[in-house]
Amino acid sequence: MKEPIPRELFKILACPVCKSNLRYNKDKTKLICTECNANYPIEGGIPILIPPEMQKQ
Questions:
Q1: Residue 48 domain-assigned?
Q2: Cα 57 to chain center, whole Å?
Q3: For residue range 12-47, what is the model confidence (pLDDT) as tens digits?
Q4: What's the angle, vertex CA 44, arms to CA 39 and CA 47, rounded to 5?
Q5: Which terminus of the chain, N or C, has less C-beta within 10 A?
Q6: CA distances from 28 to 40, 54 (A)
């Protein structure tokens, strides 16, 4: 599966909550923090890095 976010951008992204690294979920539709497990959706190739408590439910 093709990476939804360009590698150069993905390498500099960090969790806005704890500043840790991010990884893709299995389907590469979300980013998941490697430390606090916060989830961030990817919409149209753009990571939505809004802290989980501020995301629309």
A1: yes
A2: 17
A3: 999 999 999 999 999 999 999 999 999 999 999 899
A4: 35
A5: C
A6: 11, 22
